[in-house]
């Protein structure tokens, strides 16, 4: 949630420009300002989720890639086997185990945005992230509630909370950012000691279309679902294979 923390630190009732504190605009200008704030919030969510996905994928590969020493009877280099995570990704397939991690990650971000009433979930979010969760949540609520008040003044009404409305609009963009993050890799050919992350054009071609949207229908926001249970069994039961939009609304049990 690094980008969200950075965004939260820079948000507030006053805007600092060039080291000088500027009061927030009023009237129509305030409405425009709240829209800009909401856009910055969206970008912070996308960037945070994308960065988290990148590092989760790196860890997943290391934990699930068999080496020659682990498979003496069928030696193969990492990346050469059909069950190797990277090999699957290069074919445009996200391994089921990692897809499940992506579902839970997006669910965490929705909980952070929309809010949860379960204290156990709140504690888990803090434990899995950092001690700044409450600060981020407060900043999110301030921005979205302000935008909601401006919308009401202009005659716009909604039967949902500002946070729910915002998520329904932007959850899809956050998911796309997570898929987009999988097209990047560590560049080990650079100078020693200097980390570099670059986009792999082959991965981009395998995962994204020419509009940078998930290439395969089964990974699109409204279509993607978990087709493997926690014990590894495939199922077509709609109850045990919820779509992503359904999954993120299901309370998580820790």
Strand order across the biggest sheet? Answer: 1-2
Question: Which CATH-level-2 architecture?
Answer: Up-down Bundle
Q: pLDDT below 50 for ≥5 consecutive residues: which ranges? A: 13-31, 72-80
- The fraction of residues assigned to DSSP E strands is 5-15%
What letter string, H or E per element, gives the SSE order? HEEHHHHHHEEHH
Structural class: mainly alpha
| Fraction in helix | 40-55%
Shape annotation: globular
Total of helices: 9
What is the CATH C level class, in words? Answer: Mainly Alpha
Q: What is the fold named in CATH at topology level?
A: 5 helical Cullin repeat like
What count of structural domains?
1
Largest sheet: 2 strands, antiparallel
> Would you tell me the overall average pLDDT?
76
Quote the distance from N terminus to C terminus.
Answer: 20 Å
Radius of gyration: 21 Å
- Number of DSSP E strands: 4
Describe the structure.
- Helices cover 52% and strands 6% of the residues.
- It has 254 residues and is mainly alpha-helical.
- The strands form 2 sheets. The chain has a two-stranded antiparallel ribbon. Strands 3-4 form a two-stranded antiparallel ribbon.
- A hairpin with a 2-residue loop joins strand 1 (14-17) and strand 2.
- The relative contact order is 0.13.
- Residues 21-35, 66-84 have a biased composition (Polar residues).
- GO terms for molecular function: host cell surface receptor binding.
Question: What would you say about this model in short?
Answer:
The chain is mainly alpha-helical and 254 residues long. The protein has nine helices and four strands. It is 52% helix and 6% strand.
């Amino acid at each position: 949630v690094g980008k969200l923390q950075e965004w939260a630190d820079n948000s507030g009732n006053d805007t600092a420009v060039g080291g000088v504190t500027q009061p927030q605009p009023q009237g129509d200008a305030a409405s425009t300002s709240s829209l800009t704030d909401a856009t910055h919030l969206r970008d912070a969510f996308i960037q945070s989720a994308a960065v988290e996905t990148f590092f989760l994928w790196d860890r997943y590969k290391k934990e699930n890639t068999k080496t020659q020493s682990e498979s003496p009877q069928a030696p193969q280099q990492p990346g050469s086997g059909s069950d190797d995570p990277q090999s699957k990704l290069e074919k445009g397939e996200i391994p089921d185990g990692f897809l499940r991690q992506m579902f839970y990650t997006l669910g965490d971000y929705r909980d952070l945005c929309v809010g949860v009433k379960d204290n156990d979930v709140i504690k888990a979010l803090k434990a899995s992230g950092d001690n700044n969760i409450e600060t981020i949540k407060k900043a999110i609520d301030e921005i979205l509630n302000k935008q909601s008040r401006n919308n009401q003044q202009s005659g716009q009404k909604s039967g949902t909370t500002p946070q729910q409305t915002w998520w329904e609009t932007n959850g899809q963009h956050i998911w796309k950012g997570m898929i987009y993050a999988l097209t990047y890799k560590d560049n080990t050919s650079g100078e020693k000691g200097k980390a570099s992350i670059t986009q792999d054009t082959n991965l981009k071609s395998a995962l994204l279309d020419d509009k940078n949207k998930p290439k395969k229908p089964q990974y699109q926001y409204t279509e993607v679902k978990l087709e493997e249970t926690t014990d590894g069994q495939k199922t077509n039961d709609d109850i045990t294979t919820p779509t992503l939009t359904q999954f993120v609304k299901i309370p998580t049990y820790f």
